[in-house]
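Quick start: read one record
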Amino acid sequence: WITSGTATDFSANTQTTVLGLFLNNFRDRLYVAGSGAGSIAASAPYRVFYSALGNGTSWATASSFDVPNSEGDKISALKVLNDKELILTTNNLFSYNQISLKQKSSRVGAYNQEVIEEIDGLVYTFCPSGVYVTNGISVKKISEPIEDILKNFRPLYDANNRVVTNTFAFKRGDYYCLYLRSLTGIETSTIN
């Protein structure tokens, strides 16, 4: 889930405010990430907050964990797959199971929440190194046929320099469809 590019207040109380761009439900908790602005999330675009168990309106304890990465990438997407919370930065893929956080790839991430699509139990994503498919454990690059198109893609960011706004994906049947918008025109391509 992503808002219009501004941080949204997911708190139901005034004691703890958690701001974020992405929200999902994993194992009966709400997870919020992708803020980096305001309140306790200030300067923490790599932090994931989670609600009390079974109560998405309780953020009183402000439980959180940080997603480490050497590139300083901000969290760009959350996705639940195969009973794991996938956490993606622009260039990294992590898997979280409520006990441990494990980095699954240092070359696969997501430009934004909108390039993530699940098809037949697999997640497809688009990041600076290409288009990939993952089961949450291993990754496979599938963008070789369209590398000439992808090399001309230049991400455009929102006014806060936080969210890439000129690409998104959608599924049509069993196909992952990627939309790229550039200053010179529109390119589309479908990868099976």
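The helical segments are 147-150.
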